[in-house]
Automatic annotation (TrEMBL):
<feature type="compositionally biased region" description="Gly residues">
    <location>
        <begin position="312"/>
        <end position="331"/>
    </location>
</feature>
<dbReference type="GO" id="GO:0006629">
    <property type="term" value="P:lipid metabolic process"/>
</dbReference>
<dbReference type="InterPro" id="IPR051057">
    <property type="entry name" value="PI-PLC_domain"/>
</dbReference>
<protein>
    <recommendedName>
        <fullName>PLC-like phosphodiesterase</fullName>
    </recommendedName>
</protein>
<keyword id="KW-0732">Signal</keyword>
<dbReference type="Pfam" id="PF26146">
    <property type="entry name" value="PI-PLC_X"/>
</dbReference>
<dbReference type="InterPro" id="IPR017946">
    <property type="entry name" value="PLC-like_Pdiesterase_TIM-brl"/>
</dbReference>
<feature type="region of interest" description="Disordered">
    <location>
        <begin position="305"/>
        <end position="331"/>
    </location>
</feature>
<dbReference type="GO" id="GO:0008081">
    <property type="term" value="F:phosphoric diester hydrolase activity"/>
</dbReference>
<feature type="signal peptide">
    <location>
        <begin position="1"/>
        <end position="23"/>
    </location>
</feature>
């Protein structure tokens, strides 16, 4: 009887261990079990440029078609946000604006953080990154105030030794609960350790890519200084009067074949994969699939908003340049057809371009 009881307990324990092992193996980090054992700095993240700039639809300064909750649902895991003073003078919040709040004002940071927190609460195996452009040069204490009120400080990862800290794996970040990474381009200090100085950890490729020019693979910020991680800026603009104008009409081409080529060229140039692949109008083209490939994973999903947008506005043609010693990728495509914009920039600009030239300027 005693031997039988011991045998039964042994079988139960072995079964529990196997079940636990299977559960560990099946855990998915950012959607893929294969990413769990990778350290944060060895993973590539699909990123939205000016993630907040989705209103008004079709506006001159709009970089995305979908709001932040939809971006999260679709698989975006890193967000570029711009910090401005609140127009009403409220110092307990931060405003998300593009260029000037009179041009595009997407509202308070507190709202966006609430949306991100709701997603993180409901999805405990997801690691999220925010890349801050501190346009108004706000003090870190301002971010601390808004993050604390939104309940986001407990989620925020802080390196114990600054830039010298070895990054944890995604699984470790998930286990610890510290799975929100925050970088800021200027103004960081030790008083808010989770708000990390971006250029201590990350460099960026050039952000200004005019339609019809080559996609660059050079170090732009900080100038000529390589860092362990990098942002691949991959969004095309037309220019008018010094103002860059997003190009939704060619986004399927930009985020499709052009993106794959740009990633390959920069990966070869820098001998490392990009960590943050930043695009406009992410649902057009193949961003999620391209990033999965960079991570060594097979993407077989379908983002929620892609069916209605995939392939729209794609075009043909070629630009100048090729991946060579200068690190420039293939030129981005021009689109023939009718492109019409009618917008007001600070109440001063209104224009339309119709015909086969595409939109190079507003």
């Amino acid at each position: 009887m005693r031997s039988s009881l011991i045998f039964s307990i042994t079988v139960l324990l072995a079964s529990a261990l196997v079940t636990h092992s299977d559960a560990q193996q099946q855990q998915a980090c950012n959607g893929y079990p294969g990413l769990c054992a990778k350290t944060y700095d060895k993973v590539s993240y699909p990123t939205t440029h000016n993630a907040y700039a989705y209103v008004p639809p079709g506006g001159v300064a709009t970089n995305q078609n979908n709001d932040i909750p939809t971006q999260l649902k679709d698989g975006i895991r890193a967000f570029m946000l711009d910090a401005h003073e609140v127009p009403t003078g409220n110092t307990n919040d931060i405003e998300l604006c593009h260029g000037d709040c009179k041009l595009l004002d997407s509202g308070p940071l507190s709202k966006a953080l609430g949306q991100i927190k709701a997603f993180m609460d409901a999805n405990p195996n997801e690691v999220i990154t925010i890349l801050w452009e501190n346009t108004a040069n706000l003090a870190p204490a301002r971010f601390q105030t808004v993050y604390a009120a939104a309940g986001m400080v407990p989620y925020s990862y802080a390196p114990s030794k600054g830039a010298d800290t070895a990054w944890p794996t995604l699984a470790q970040m998930i286990s610890s609960g510290k799975r929100l990474v925050n970088f800021i381009d200027q103004g960081a200090d030790a008083s808010v350790p989770w708000l990390m100085a971006e250029y201590d950890f990350v460099f960026e490729t050039p952000w200004m890519i005019e339609k019809g020019t080559a996609y660059p693979c050079t170090v732009d910020r900080p100038k000529d200084q390589r860092k362990p991680m990098y942002v691949l800026n991959h969004f095309v603009s037309g220019v008018f009067g010094g103002v860059s104008i997003p190009q939704p009409g060619i986004a399927a081409q930009t985020n499709g074949p052009d993106l794959a080529s740009h990633i390959n060229t920069c990966q070869s140039t820098f001998s490392q994969a990009p960590n943050f692949v930043a695009v406009d109008f992410y649902e057009k083209g193949d961003l999620l699939e391209a990033v999965a490939k960079v991570n060594g994973e097979e993407w077989n999903g379908q983002i929620a908003t892609q069916n209605a947008n995939r392939g729209s506005g794609s075009g043909s043609g070629s630009g100048s340049g090729s991946g060579s010693g200068s690190g420039s990728g293939g030129g981005n495509s021009a689109v023939a057809g009718a492109v019409h914009w009618s917008v007001q920039t600070l109440g001063l600009v209104s224009a339309a371009v119709v015909g086969g030239m595409g939109l190079m300027a507003l």
